[in-house]
Amino acid sequence: MFRRADRRRTLLVPVLCFAVLAFVVVGAVLAQILPQLDPLRADFRAPLRPPSLEHWFGTDATGRDVFARTLAGGASSIIVVALTVAVGLVIGGGLGVIAGFSPGWVDSGIGIVLDLVLALPGLITVMIVVTLIGPGQVTIGALIGLLMAPAFARVARSATLSVRGQDFVHAARIMGAPPLRIVASEVVRCVLPAVAAYSFTAVTVAIVAEGSLSFLGFGLAPPTASWGGLIAEGHTHIASAPWICLAPAVVLCATVLAVNVLGERWGRTR
């Protein structure tokens, strides 16, 4: 009986996590194609309305639907997350594989560069760059990805070091395969699972970082909707209309929690 209950819990948790992520992804897509979910459409007759059948998450001070704006904020987070993981995976993962597979001086040189990047205060660095060149989804996603690259590199380097001495790598060298081909065909496929597991952490960092930047006024500029921006807009009405910032905050926390749980389970089964 207890085993069945444990199995049900084991299955229920990832199902709920996938449901949360599906809600965010599907909602983000629908917010881009359905005019009813236009995050900028304002109903001036219904400002600061509480949640109802007409406005599921209520409305803000200008009558804009909080549900539609929350879904649009998910789209912004997805773009930033995709850029973060892509930049971190390609640049950081590539440098990590090169460092782990190459001679000592190459490894040391890459290590020094990565340590310099790690020494930078991440959030402050992004704020400075955004102030200089302007906010945007591409800019913020690329910057967070670059700052996450050292962590990707360390994971990839560690995995590469464990693979470099394997028999199949030695066999490829004996057969005369060039180093680039060995890395592409033998090493990368063994490193990818470890880097993919770390990508879950990068996703949560990107979501929280983008939300924090938008909340502080250094993220996506209005009228682009973002979860952090929605929370910042709603905190001035938190006493009279708490739903304005509560809805995006709950969705943000649920998304981060779902990604963390799935990432932990991926790491166990890897």
UniProtKB/TrEMBL annotation:
Transmembrane intervals: 78-101, 113-133, 139-156, 195-221, 241-262
Record's bilayer topology term: Multi-pass membrane protein
Family matches, as InterPro entries: BP-dependent_transpt_permease (IPR050366), MetI-like (IPR000515), MetI-like_sf (IPR035906)
Alphabetized UniProt keyword annotations: Cell membrane, Membrane, Transmembrane, Transmembrane helix, Transport
Primary localisation category: membrane
Cell location: Cell membrane
Sequence ranges assigned to domain ABC transmembrane type-1 in this UniProt record: 74-263
Gene3D superfamilies assigned: MetI-like
Pfam families found in the cross-reference section: BPD_transp_1
Family: Belongs to the binding-protein-dependent transport system permease family.
PANTHER family assigned: D,D-DIPEPTIDE TRANSPORT SYSTEM PERMEASE PROTEIN DDPC-RELATED, OLIGOPEPTIDE TRANSPORT SYSTEM PERMEASE PROTEIN APPC
Name of protein: ABC transporter permease
